[in-house]
Amino acid sequence: MAGRDTFQLRFAAVAASAAVLIFLMAGQVAESRMINICSHTAYPSLCRPLVKRVTSPRKATHRTIQALEAKTKLALAETARFKNGNQAVSTCYETLSDAVYNLASARKSIRKRDVPAMNTYLTAAVSDYGACVDGFIETQQVNAIQNAVVDLRKISSNCLALSTLIR
């Protein structure tokens, strides 16, 4: 009897160890897929926090668009406070407004599975952020708004790169 109980106990321990090992390996595979998705972007360190545990390029792109849209709205509100009297900030306010529209349109396009339209809107958003940054460079201004928009431009570039992975 004691031998049978020992065998059952060993068998249960081996089965539990195998289950834990399979669970850990599955987590590493999902993590490597996420890293692989972000490795296709120019700024993987900005990509990874936005697409945690997402392995689908479509879902990763959608999540990044949503995050970018929210961050852009925050930057737009900050820009609105300083737009009067500063041409570069005023121009940036207008281009950020355009970017919000383009991101909302891109988000709608991804839901409709219209990848070409989504890429068009994302390209326009990248251009909007670039125009804002260029306005600050031309006037030789460096401020918190410009720094925020530089990050938004990088994230939008990542978003466009992720969208090219959608099949």
From TrEMBL:
CDD domains: PMEI-like_2. Residues 30-162 form the Pectinesterase inhibitor domain. It comes from the Eukaryota. One of its GO terms (molecular function) is enzyme inhibitor activity. NCBIfam families: PME_inhib. Belongs to the PMEI family. This is Pectinesterase inhibitor domain-containing protein. The keyword Hydrolase does not apply. Keywords: Signal.
